[in-house]
TrEMBL record:
Organism: Litoreibacter roseus
Pfam families: Abhydrolase_6 (PF12697)
Domain AB hydrolase-1: residue ranges: 35-259
Protein name per UniProt: AB hydrolase-1 domain-containing protein
Length: 286
């Protein structure tokens, strides 16, 4: 069984989202720069435990639970991405730090790209983990609707088969598969399906174009992933790191490589923000 050990937080708090939902967060470490971790669909902050442990000695690390996830309050009958952005923005305002690296996985990756556009001056870096795809890699609306219908018919029964096809590779360990299946299988099916619906509708190219003045690091499983050349037209400072053989849950499947990459790249991105300079786009395979 996969066990993720999250360090004991220095403090805890609860922010209030724009619609009144309680959004709990935890703070680890007390470094001068701040890293926000946003979990993905049907998960919670604990999925980032290994990354929190790797960074909290050098940074102030903040991790939250989005509405209707983990220990957060429940949101009724509305699950647009914009509401999740407001959840994260409420935490940022409550913690009140001057400079942030925003790290998000999957739905959380799209969320942090949207969040950065709302807090441009405070955002030093955006790290998107296996969320941004080329237009030809996104699901056509008809296929997305069919997938959502399939999941909604019998969520606990159908989600494992869907995950096997969509999220894992033949190198993904059985422990990680079981961990993710438990997390998603225990989620509320309606919340899960409706939250996924708006996530799938997002235009990734437009998301990155809207934050073209902020350094972006894409950390993707490989294959498939967009090539770095794909981003040049609409984001001049985007670096792509691909983790060979990893599936969707890169931070679980390649923990040491993933954490090493974060430790190497975050200082550069914070420094570039401070000095208002940017490196050229690059592509790396790990």
């Amino acid at each position: 069984m996969l066990v993720i050990d999250t360090p004991e937080p220095h403090s805890r708090g609860v922010a209030t989202s724009s619609d009144g939902v309680d959004i709990p967060y935890q703070i680890f470490g007390d470094g001068p720069e701040t890293v926000l971790f946003v979990h993905g669909w049907c998960c919670d902050h604990s999925i980032w435990g290994d990354q929190i442990a790797a960074l909290c000695s050098d940074y102030t690390v903040v991790a939250l639970d989005l509405a209707s996830h983990g220990s957060a309050g429940k949101r009724q009958n509305a699950w647009p991405m914009s509401s999740y952005v407001q959840d994260a923005l409420a935490v940022v305002k409550a913690v009140n730090r001057p400079s942030w690296a925003l790290v998000g996985h999957s739905l959380g990756g799209v969320l942090v790209a949207m969040l950065a556009a709302e807090m441009r001056a405070e955002t030093a870096a955006v790290v998107v983990v296996d969320a941004i795809k080329r237009p030809d890699q996104t699901l056509p609306q008809q296929d997305a609707d069919a997938m959502l219908d399939y999941l909604s018919v019998d969520w606990p029964r159908n989600v494992p088969a869907w995950l096997a096809e969509a999220a894992f590779t033949n190198k993904t360990s059985s422990e990680i598969v079981s961990y993710v299946e438990r997390a998603l299988g225990s989620a509320d099916g309606t919340t899960a399906v409706e939250g996924l619906r708006d996530f799938l509708a997002q235009d990734h190219a437009k998301l990155l174009d809207a934050i073209r003045d902020i350094p972006v690091l894409l950390m993707n499983g490989a294959p498939p992933a967009p090539s770095a050349d794909f981003f040049d037209a609409f984001h001049p400072d985007c670096k792509l790191v691909e983790f060979e053989g990893a599936g969707h849950f890169v931070m679980l499947e390649r923990v040491e490589d993933f954490n090493r990459c974060l430790r190497e790249e975050l200082p550069k991105m914070f420094s570039a923000h401070l000095n208002e300079s940017s490196p050229a786009s690059r592509e790396v395979l790990i």
